[in-house]
DNA sequence: AGTGCCGGGGA
DNA sequence: TCCCCGGCACT
């Protein structure tokens, strides 16, 4: 499919997490513009591509607080005169934001709302990474058989859509992590299937320490901030406006069946885990913790999916083993939650998860965990939760509460726990190791 | 396929 | 207001 414009990224971007990246980053010096202006051309799209491999982290590195302290990675773009010189490319451009410095500069000179509606270039001519010409995303709908019967009304709608530049969503924490780690995983696993790679990335994501995850959360948060600065009026809705036309609400009758299936494991007595602290609060995560404590939510809740801690009819929430890493990915609790049982149960499943992650027997498991005795059913199926969780109910191998609490948005609260981290890392290591072991031996 | 985020809309 | 779905972000 060539309906996507390859997103051109700056090769000279310095990621704040650069230390985590083992592969090299290329830096450019002022006066020595990157060669990607003459980048090779995608044979499919005819769109210039970056000459660098996609594994280089392309995120803007500067946080507002550090602006001015870190050498501008785009120094060559921002000459001393204060008159930015931007490269002009035709393709999408997903170096998310030209760093805070550039952003500020462009904001003062070219207010975000001045972004031309018909073009993916800034007024300055800078192709914004997050802007993609709408036509890119139009193709599929255009080619729809149904579109043959499209009315004039629809046509006019499409016209309008075409005029709107497509501003991509800011990357979330996991996406940032994915972009950074994908190449590594690919290299280690000799996997080519993105689905399989993503699975690994998902597991690794859960295996990350709080601190590491917090970095990405913080990054993502900054990206969102920056995004909103650049595009004050931007709404995520813009990104799937096409879907809105046909979107007609479904009924929620399925709920019961769905819910049962979903909670099967949690409703099973043998699976029961310590209930969440506040039994008198039959609320779901959102209601219990509030929006400002999303870090305490279970994974699905944070994804605005069904709460897995809440059991209908029981009037209480539980902290079941994560069906989808929900607890794992649930970032650390806020300081107020430090000693709560919630945290305990969380940390239990959290530490259990990495080893008990649904290990598929198929390609992934075979490739990456050939020695693993665990052969579990597909992930994200609570009913198929690993036996060590479902049978024991809890994992007592670690001290509850030893999990260092921290919120993804407050790095300062992260308290590395010596009692936890090593174990945690070893778990992660146990996961990672097979990846590299397998790399060649399979062939 | 993975997770995070967000808007819409049912309840 | 709560809750959940659908969709997008990337590869």
From TrEMBL:
It is found in: Nucleus. Gene3D superfamilies: High mobility group box domain (1.10.30.10). Residues 152-163 have a biased composition (Basic and acidic residues). The keyword Nucleus applies. Belongs to the TCF/LEF family. Residues 167-235 bind DNA. Residues 135-145, 343-356, 385-394 have a biased composition (Polar residues). The keyword Cytoplasm does not apply. This is HMG box domain-containing protein. GO terms for biological process: canonical Wnt signaling pathway. PROSITE patterns: HMG_BOX_2 (PS50118). Keywords: Activator, DNA-binding, Nucleus, Transcription, Transcription regulation, Wnt signaling pathway. Residues 319-340 have a biased composition (Low complexity). One of its GO terms (molecular function) is RNA polymerase II cis-regulatory region sequence-specific DNA binding. GO terms for cellular component: beta-catenin-TCF complex; catenin-TCF7L2 complex; chromatin. It comes from the Eukaryota. Residues 135-167, 315-421 are annotated as: Disordered. SMART domains: c-clamp, HMG. It holds the Pfam family CTNNB1_binding. It comes from Pyxicephalus adspersus. Residues 167-235 form the HMG box domain.
